[in-house]
Amino acid sequence: MTRRHSSGALPVSQSQARGFKALVDADGTGNVEELTSSRRALRGVRWTGRNYVSTRDETTVVNAQAEPVGRTDAAAELAAIATTTVTTPS
């Protein structure tokens, strides 16, 4: 019998987490459904990968991707902040 975590997630090994991180870091894998697929206002966003980051802590993998929607310095700064936050220890 497989025991599930209280959240319903299956237990993951560090090896599986490393493999998953390698998958999400590979260009063109389409591993995350972006908001543009479900939000009409964001469908014109061009995902460049410049504001992409992922991190792994033992069996936990976190990734984030952001793109500026406008052409202002503030929009670019916000995209950079979103990806920096993933790798900043709490």
Describe this structure in words.
It is a single chain. By secondary structure, the protein is an alpha+beta fold. The protein has one domain (14-87). It has 2 helices and 2 strands; from the N terminus they run H-E-E-H. It has helices at residues 14-25, 73-87, and strands spanning 52-57, 60-65. A two-stranded antiparallel ribbon has the order 1-2. The longest helix has 15 residues, at 73-87. The chain is globular.
Please describe the structure with a list of short key phrases separated by commas or semicolons.
alpha+beta; 90 residues; globular; two-stranded antiparallel sheet
Helix count?
2
Percentage of residues in strands: 5-15%
Rg result: 16 Å
Task: Report how far the terminal alpha carbons are from each other.
Answer: 35 Å
> Helical amount among residues, as a percent range?
25-40%
Strand order of the largest sheet: 1-2
Uncertain stretches:
none
Helix and strand content put the structural class at: alpha+beta
Q: What is the β-strand count?
A: 2
Give the count of structural domains.
1
> Assembly type of the shown chains?
single chain
Q: What's the mean pLDDT score?
A: 76
Major sheet details: 2 strands, antiparallel
